[in-house]
Amino acid sequence: MRVHQQAELVLQIAVARPAEDRTEEDLTIRRDGVLVSAAEVAMEHEGRAHLLRLDPGWVTIDYRAVVGGVAKRPEPTQAERVVFVRPSRYAESDRLSAMARSEFAGIGPGPELLAAVSSWVGTQLSYVPGSSRPTDGAVQTLLQRQGVCRDYAHLVIALLRALDVPARLAAVYAPGLEPMDFHAVAEALIGGRWRVVDATLLAPRTSLLRIATGRDAADTAFLSAYGGAVELIETQVTAVTDGPLPSDDVTALVSIG
């Protein structure tokens, strides 16, 4: 990237805690070839952000992690049940309530509802890279009938919240994703556990590795810049598994570790 004016950056590219699951990890930031330090900040839902101030220049950011084992996540809290059922910036569930209740009438808040919403969104939208704007939310996505992973996730989240099911967005690394990039999926609180809903069907849900979690993309952006002009020139994301990719039974309930 190129920093045109002094700016503060927030990175959310590091895998989420707990640390014992990260067997190797390295974050290297250079401006014009000189190492730059970043302060790590613990975020909600076990995410980790890195904050740094940069003067004008050419900046490269490299992050690498090797993760093993299965991470254990905390039980959902009552606060999460409240926060993640509310409308948010990119998941305007209050504007989709009537449509959602009509489309999914008679389906209770369980696995059948997750399957129905995921299938409906997957058939209503076309995955078209570059088709959406950073400011588009679930309503605009539904009107356009196309988008990328975050748009699919926002629409799933908005529909589930409109049906009184707590739902949130998870930014993840997704081995098997094609084309490879950062990925976004929805999570729904069903039976006391957060379950993954990915209407794109682009990567096995059991291979996903959590980066950040929040109400929508406003909470999970991999890069935010404040106070000065920053130009993102190129990104390259690689995520692989040790061995063959797992299969993904779309009817199974899956949680991100």
The sequence of SSEs as H and E is: EEEEEEEHHHEHEHEEEEHEE
In the predicted model, the low-confidence regions spanning at least 5 consecutive residues are none
CATH level-two architecture of the domain at 78-217? Roll
Taking the sheet with the most strands, its summary is:
5 strands, antiparallel
From the N-terminal CA to the C-terminal CA, the straight-line distance is: 31 Å
Verbal overview:
The chain has 257 residues and is α+β, with helices and mostly antiparallel strands. It has a domain at 78-217: Roll (C8orf32 fold). It is 20% helix and 30% strand. The chain has 6 helices and 15 strands. The strands form 4 sheets. A 5-stranded antiparallel sheet has the order 4-3-7-1-15, with no helix packed on it. β8, α4 and β9 form a beta-alpha-beta unit. α2 packs across α5 (149-162), α3 packs across α5 (149-162) and α4 (138-144) packs across α5. The longest helix has 14 residues, at 111-124. The two termini are 31 Å apart. The mean pLDDT is 94.
